[in-house]
Amino acid sequence: MEEFQKLWEQIKAKLQIILDEDVYNETFAGITSVFKIVNNYVYLVAPNSFIKGKIESFYLNRLNGMLNELVQEKHMFKIITKEQAAEELAKAPYTVNSPEQGLADKYKTGLNNSYTFENFVVGASNRLAYTSAIKVADQPGVISNPLYIFGEVGLGKTHLMQCVGNYILENDVNKKVLYVKTDQFIEDYAKASVKKTFDEFSKKYENVDILLVDDIQFLAGKNQSQLEFFKIFEKLKENNKQIVITSDRPATELYDIMSRLTSRFSWGLSVDINRPSLDHRIQILKKKLQAETSDPELVPDNVLEYVASIFDNNVRELEGALKRVLFYCTAFDYKFTTTNAEEALKNLINTKKISNSAMANGNFNAVLDIVSSYYHITTSDLLSNKRTKQYVYPRQVSMYILKEVYDLTYKKIGQIFNDKDHSTVIYSIEQIANDMQTDKDKKTDIEKLLIKCGKKA
Ligand code: ADP
Ligand code: MG
User: Fold this and answer.
1) If you write DSSP's letter for every residue of 10-70 in order, what string do you get?
2) Largest Cα–Cα distance in the chain?
3) Residue 277's pLDDT is what?
4) CA–CA distance from 222 to each of 106, 190, 226, 318 (Å)?
5) What are the phi and psi torsion angles at 180 (to 5°)?
6) Predicted confidence band at 99 (pLDDT cuts at 50, 70, 90)?
7) Model confidence over 401-446: pLDDT tens digits?
8) What is the pLDDT averaged over residues 369-396?
9) CATH class of 278-356
10) What pLDDT score was predicted for residue 41?
11) What is the pLDDT of residues 338-361, one digit of tens each?
12) What is the pLDDT of residue 295?
């Protein structure tokens, strides 16, 4: 803060030289101090909206250029009026530098304020998602509505979605942002149904400027909640309120969600996040290290590289591994070497090895996991004798896959599924084979699953 105060004074001194005296006096002389710094935005307070507008239209680029000659990390000026500053101070008197907390209470945003664009590390795997999110945060409701972010677990979808909310709030304390996990939405709706408090429910979801809905795939099979979400979606969209959605798969592959909803998810912009490269993972570790320790040089590069080389498909795991190494070496006062890191991560590495080789070694749990998570049921339901369609169909699909990909005997497949008779297995597999010939959607679904379960494309 102090540093920026000094920088602002330097910039003012320069302006005084470059600009006409009148212009300088009218426009800049009255801006004395830096109000706050949030997410690389340096806030200046203009005496009124006229001067704010003038600076924004004519001088902002030049000011930003001057600022970035003086600082290493990219920063930008943001101009607010005296009124806006006063309003902010009145609302969050204790937290000028991070007003999120006060706000979180006010609107119950559901946001975690540590998820910011600044600590999101950008690389090839997430660049498009990142730039789209920034654009949406900058002009909510205008550019891409909804913004649909998809990708595998642990790759930063929730983080990025929350950045949008946090950013919007930082720039306009009066915006109503609501972040909700899909589970929570379903639960809220169920509660409203029981208690007949639909008004309250609608108010919570419809009176917002930005709605962030995380992991939409969990709407699968929940018809009532889907209908309700549809209504909310329509309403918000109609009023140009921004909607951001995340999912573990593209909208076209959502299972058991009504098509009028999934088709709307594709109206705006769909972006995916992929697995980060080795170099990207190392950068992520460095960023996390900055947050975790006071000495970012504490862990040498070769150790970071070692950790990044092992944890290659999930940033959450990568982060967990780093924390473990930090804890292990600090607690026992060991040096940060690859040997010690390996020791710290022994258990994690073993579990990882086991799950990787599970398929190769004929442990078919992986197939069962993939199929059950695809259809949003538990593995134990998949293996059970429950007769409802919701379970029977995925069970038949699993059997089909075990035959197609691993060529197990009918008997062996029967044994996996709670000792089913081999004729049941044959019947199930035939059913699916039939479906594949008659139902194009099911065929596409199953073909994807076959590949996920190890069938060579
Ligand atoms: P998802 O919602 O896709 O399952 P999350 O957003 O929960 O993943 O991310 C998992 C963890 O990894 C979080 O702690 C998040 O901060 C971190 N993370 C993921 N991607 C990045 C990134 N590009 N830069 C920094 N941290 C990241
Ligand atoms: Mg998530």
Assistant:
1) HHHHHHHHHS-HHHIIIIITT--SEEEEETTEEEEEESSHHHHHHIIIIIHHHHHHHHHHH
2) 94
3) 96
4) 31, 10, 6, 33
5) -145, 140
6) very low
7) 998 888 888 888 998 898 888 889 999 999 999 999 999 999 999 9
8) 92
9) mainly alpha
10) 84
11) 999 999 998 888 777 655 555 555
12) 83
Prediction pTM value: 0.66
Residue whose CA is at the smallest distance from ligand 1 atom 26:
120
Task: Find tokens 């006063």 and name the residue.
Answer: 86
Ligand 1 centre from 165 Cα, in Å? 15
311 with 282: CB under 8 angstroms?
Answer: no
Ligand 1 pocket list (CB less than 6 A): 119-121, 126, 151, 153-159, 284, 287, 315-316, 319
Beta pairing, strands 41-46 & 34-38: antiparallel
Q: Whose CA is nearest to atom 4 of ligand 1?
A: 154
Q: Which ligand is nearest to the CA of 218?
A: 2
- Considering the segment(s) 364-452 as one domain, its CATH architecture is Orthogonal Bundle (1.10)
pLDDT tens profile 203-212: 999 999 999 9
How many CA atoms within 13 Å lie on the side-chain side of 429? 21
Contact between 312 and 152 under an 8 Å Cβ cutoff? The reply is no
Measured from the CA of 115, which atom of ligand 1 is nearest?
16
Q: What is the mean pLDDT of the chain?
A: 88
Q: Give the pLDDT of residue 95.
A: 40
**Which two three-digit tokens encode residue 9?**
């004074």
Which CATH number among 1.20.1540.10, 3.30.300.180, 3.40.190.10, 3.40.50.1000 corresponds to the domain 2-103? 3.30.300.180
Pick the CATH number of 117-273 from 3.40.190.10, 1.10.287.110, 3.40.50.300, 3.40.50.720: 3.40.50.300
Let me know how long the chain is. Answer: 457
CA–centroid distance, residue 157 to ligand 2 (Å): 5
